[in-house]
Design goal:
- The structure is a homodimer.
- In chain A, the strands form three sheets. Chain A has a six-stranded parallel β-sheet with strand order 2-1-3-4-5-11, sandwiched between helices.
- In chain A, β6 (about 180-185), α9 and β7 form a beta-alpha-beta unit.
- The longest helix of chain A is centred in the last third of the chain and has 21 residues, at about 295-315.
- The N and C termini of chain A lie far apart (about 75 Å).
- Chain A is about 45% helix and about 15% strand.
- Chain A has helices at about 5-15, 20-25, 35-45, 50-60, 75-90, 105-120, 135-140, 160-175, 190-205, 225-235, 250-260, 295-315, and strands at about 65-70, 95-100, 125, 145-150, 155-160, 180-185, 215-220, 240-245, 270, 290, 325-330, 330-335.
- The first copy, chain A, has twelve helices and twelve strands.
- The first copy, chain A, is an alpha/beta fold.
- At the A-B interface, α4, α5, β2, α6 and α7 of A face α4, α5, β2, α6 and α7 of B.
- The structure holds a DNA duplex.
Chain lengths: ~350, ~350
DNA sequence: GTGAAAGCGCTAACAC
DNA sequence: GTGTTAGCGCTTTCAC
């Protein structure tokens, strides 16, 4: 690696002052054509690049935003991230993105947030991660924050109609003759997931179907956990005619398990997922599921964040505790082949 | 957002010098127990967080690494990223990761690299992206670099046995009686993909099967492109008995297309993919494919990078152009249900 | 337009 | 152990 030059070097070579170099490189003020070209020539000659470490300190802007996400390996989250990225790294903004992949680990979350605060990251987007109120307040005191699909107290949020979606999915099952419907999910405290379970419960209630504890399966979220839970579940005496999975990943793990043990979908049991990830229309049978606008959610959150950053910059220290915004985007039930009509 | 305090504030409140505060907060030297607790108390009281913008400038370390990746939405890349992340954000290192998702766009690549250099990012891992020699040299002059599955001149690399893998996959097809074998890929210039095609060609040659131009399908990499290419291909007069796809994503897009137009796999035509992404064992029929150690590749590259960073720090300016390392990890043909034995 | 100079908030000698 | 001080490489007044 070569030595890195400084603005002073550029200034010397081009015969102008340090501040003129700065002006040229940041377009922060008018500079005569002659000097400008002199500077640019020197920059080229030295292969000089401005040092953001220094400029960020001087201007007190990190030009960085963070995305906290549970698992970038989950296609739904990856899609959300892409939406965020396409806005954030658009030409006009000069932000870079620090990706914080938590693997659902509390300690990783905490560590990342420390990092975020120390780095003076200008804003953070939290995706489906139910940070503690303490952590949220901690972040809010230091930077801007938007959440996606998680309710965080006092935080602007991009959400979908989780409850309604699951309500409709459950009703769809009921309208197909199902009365024995299990729910595969897990206790996470995550808002969106709770909402989904609520939708399921409310639909049952509306149709006077009693909620059964043994139909509420806490199956974990790794493929292995779901697999085991699914196999065990089918060994019980009280087997339902349909299963709703909290998301497609879970549904697909169930499918894998069922195939192994010879349970046929939808002949033996019907199945509905949530997310409409790419795989869901490739598996056999194709999965009936709920589509959510993942990419668009990312975009929306990123736009909100940029606005918020700009606004906060102008009113630092002012006590303006506004009512948090909440943007709710629609979902759609995608009917495919994993539900059987029964009588 | 609150005002952010500085070390000086902490020093004042705790009644010690600024440097003592620094020592406590960075563990960089011994401090007496009394003063240490005084400092810690003040830190807590002010809810103080060290400003990395400043400390990074002073110590000339950005504590950041970058990952350049074509498409985080591709499960293979996501898995590689996870391997990287688990090493990089391990407890001992205090790095954060800037994710550069290029979407295969040259202009985005270039922009990200500018960012990387300006930010004085300490190291970069390039995943399956064939940067121009100019860009590579540009990076090499300013920071440390490791590549995954791409040959970049003079750059250490974590690779797999791409050519051998495809050679074996093709031979497997041949041993199942196939002589008419098409290859779905695209001209990318990316090393790993070229290698794969070479493996295909070499296997044909070894078995005296002439290479046919119309069997070399340049199908693009988006799902839509592959879909169209697959449909068009099946309308031609010279249809093969088997197809090798350059990766699983492509193979699966082909499957989707074939299902639509009623072509049965493997009855009508056999198919082999590459990557062994999660979906490949869920689709129907299960896809015969080549497994590569994606997570482990990420880990390996990250470890190499950390070592390189530490080494480079100690020998900046020294002209030590070593022979680039190349770590080659093994692949494995995973035989499932998408290939039919013919006679 | 342009340059000089005073920071930004730290780290890292250096002296004690 | 501890404090003083000189940077790190920029941005941003301020004066001309």
């Amino acid at each position: 690696m070569n030595k890195q030059y400084t603005m002073e070097d550029v200034a010397k070579i081009s015969g102008v002052s340090l501040s003129t170099v700065s002006r040229v490189l940041t377009n922060s003020a008018k500079v005569s054509k002659t000097k400008k070209s002199l500077v640019l020539k020197a920059v080229k000659e030295l292969d000089y690049n401005i040092n953001s470490l220094a400029s960020n300190l001087a201007s007190n802007k990190s030009k960085e935003i963070a995305v906290i996400i549970p698992d970038i390996t989950n296609p739904f989250f990856a899609e959300v991230f892409k939406g965020i990225d396409d806005i954030i790294s658009a030409d006009n903004n000069h932000y870079s993105i620090m990706l914080c992949n938590t693997n659902f680990s509390r300690s990783k979350e905490k560590k990342y947030i420390e990092h975020i605060i120390k780095k003076r990251v200008e804003g953070v987007i939290v995706v489906s991660t139910d940070l503690s109120e303490e952590l949220v307040n901690n972040i809010k005191r230091k930077t801007s924050i938007i959440s996606i699909e998680t309710f965080l107290k006092g935080v602007d949020m991009v959400d979908i109609t989780n409850e309604l979606a699951m309500f409709e999915a459950t009703e769809y099952l009921i309208s197909n003759g199902h009365k024995k419907i299990a729910f595969f999910g897990w206790q996470s405290g995550v808002h969106s997931l709770n909402q989904r379970m609520e939708g399921y419960k409310n639909a049952l209630e509306k149709h006077n179907i009693p909620l059964k504890d043994n139909y509420l399966v806490n199956c974990g979220f790794t493929q292995a956990e779901v697999y085991i839970a699914a196999v065990n579940f089918m060994e019980s005496k009280d087997i339902p005619t349909a299963i709703i999975a909290i998301n497609d990943n879970t549904a697909i793990s169930i499918m894998v398990a069922f195939e192994k043990i010879g349970v046929k979908i939808p002949e033996d049991i019907s199945l509905i997922g949530f997310d409409n990830i790419v795989i869901s229309r490739i598996v056999s049978p194709k999965l009936t599921t709920v589509a959510q606008p993942s990419y668009y959610m990312g975009e929306t959150a990123a736009e909100l964040l940029i606005n918020k950053i700009n606004k906060n910059r102008n009113q630092r220290d002012k006590e303006t505790e506004e009512i948090p915004k909440r943007i709710i985007l629609p979902t759609k039930l995608i009917i495919r082949g994993s539900v059987k009509k029964i009588f």
